[in-house]
Write a structure and sequence with these properties.
By secondary structure, this protein is mainly α. The chain has helices at 3-12, 14-39, 45-54, 58-66, 71-81, 86-104, 108-140, 144-198. The longest helix is centred in the C-terminal third of the chain and has 55 residues, at 144-198.
């Protein structure tokens, strides 16, 4: 298909393609934002626990945690600020993890929505293109050249929907699983920090 034909296809399918293009831009923005967020998280919990175990002074631990934006530091600071009761500390641990997860899940649902909706938007473009192709057939007594634009628009709509949906779904699953693994680690480490804070 030459350059002029591509321009005709894009012009014919611009309502659907513009929605898919906007979805792709949003996907890229969310993925980059999540990449920056998660790349700053220190996932090595063992050295952190060792440093807390070596320094048993609650005031120094609180001062260290206050100056850090790492999830483990936030969890530790909240646990040490809570009273001496284990049940209270465990409730604090649960609430802190829930707040962290809620923060990290920001905009993540957008990826899931785009992954779900994009194929249907592409399918809409496909249906519109096929309707246009059959209309051209009825108006030109079946001329192949006349229906080529409609068929091309249909195929481009399908391809566009998949191109947008597949990366969005991949990154949605990736970051969802990453949050799940981090949550499990925080729960395990949090229980050990509670034990240290009660000693």
């Amino acid at each position: 298909m030459d350059q002029v034909a591509w321009r005709q296809v894009i012009f014919a399918g611009w309502p659907v393609l513009s929605v898919l293009f906007a979805g792709s831009i949003i996907t890229i923005a969310v993925v980059l934002e999540k990449w920056r967020t998660f790349s700053r998280i220190n996932t090595k919990s063992k050295p952190f626990l060792e440093s807390i175990s070596a320094n048993r002074d609650p005031d120094k631990i609180l001062k260290f945690c206050k100056g850090s934006d790492q999830p483990l530091a936030i969890i530790t600071g909240n646990i040490y600020k809570t009273g001496k009761n284990r049940e209270e500390k465990e409730r604090t641990l649960t609430r802190t993890i829930q707040a962290l997860v809620q923060n990290f899940e920001t905009h993540l649902a957008t990826l899931g929505t785009i992954a779900s909706v994009a194929p249907f938007v592409g399918l809409l473009g496909t249906v519109i293109g096929i309707i246009r192709a059959f209309r051209s057939i009825s108006m030109t007594q079946g001329g192949a050249t006349a229906v080529a634009l409609g068929i091309s628009e249909a195929l481009v709509g399908t391809a566009g929907g998949l191109v947008v949906a597949i990366p969005a779904l991949i990154f949605y699953n990736y970051y969802t699983n990453k949050i799940r693994r981090l949550t499990q680690d925080w729960e395990i480490v949090g229980q050990e920090i509670i034990d240290l804070s009660l000693d």
